[in-house]
Amino acid sequence: MEQSKxxxxxxxxxxxxxxxxxxxxNKFGINVIKVKEIINPVAITIVPHAHPNxxxxxxxRGEVLPVVDVAKTLGFPASQTPAQDKFIVAEFNKQKxxxxxxxxxxxxxxxxxxxxxxxxxxxxxxxxxxxxxxxxGEMLLLLDFEKIVVEINPETGxxxxxxxxxxxxxxxxxxxxxxxxxxxxxxxxxxxxxxAGYHNxxxxxxxxxxxxxxxxxxxxxxxxxEEVQIIITDLEMPQMDGHHFTRRVKExxxxxxxxxxxxxxxxxxxxxxxxxxxxxxxxxxxxxxAELIKLVDEHIL
Length: 301
Hints:
Number of strands: 16
Structural class: alpha/beta
Strand order of the largest sheet: 8-1-2-11-10-9
CATH superfamily of the largest domain: CheA-289, Domain 4
CATH class of the largest domain: Mainly Beta
Helix content: 25-40%
Order of helices and strands: HEEEEEHEEEEEEHHEHEHHEHEHEH
Shape: globular
Mean pLDDT: 89
Low-confidence stretches: 1-9
Largest sheet: 6 strands, mixed
CATH architecture of the largest domain: Beta Barrel
């Protein structure tokens, strides 16, 4: 698994590998980069007054990890064959969590272009789906695992209080372009960046839409660097991921001078060099919003 992680994200190829898992008859996916290992269920210690979606805790090689019941989180019935269930041990946002699923089937290598963004009919702030993948005549739903975790423990999310600790802020007319697929995180980023004094914000659901916006500006004969001062991008996004988006910006004669900050739950020591390869000016792990604001200040003020 480690080798494939390197190959896929090394050059911003706009590809990813997903682990397919099942809850009831439905099929879902999780990015391989988030997955540390997949194990058979072990004994769970129940924690009094825990969140309803948390089954309890387990010990795995000396670490105590919370177990999230994915079926319950999604409002699905419990497993009919619990002995055959699987635990997906995941790591993102600088924390490890175990997701209890009903089955794990295979790994697929796909392009982000194959992932369709959910339609507005079933994607509001409350939706846990960030993408739909059509594979071999079936549909896999890509879950918003960050949102699932933030709902259980809001402290792990972007916190406006971190910005308030930075003290009083001047308002800035600098324009920021932000690519982020999660509706919840778009709202949180909007609120926190506005609190930090940045109110001239352009939000896009993925790198493709953001790139088209920037390229259309250049095609209209405008100086993009005068119109836009910085780009903030997530990594996991339907259609075009953040590494590929960054590479396309940096390789462009008209856009290459724009600073790009990658703001993602996947920024780890292992993956940081992949952002450097595609030319990112800075990389920050969610939910370190205060760190993000400081970097924005450094690059454009």
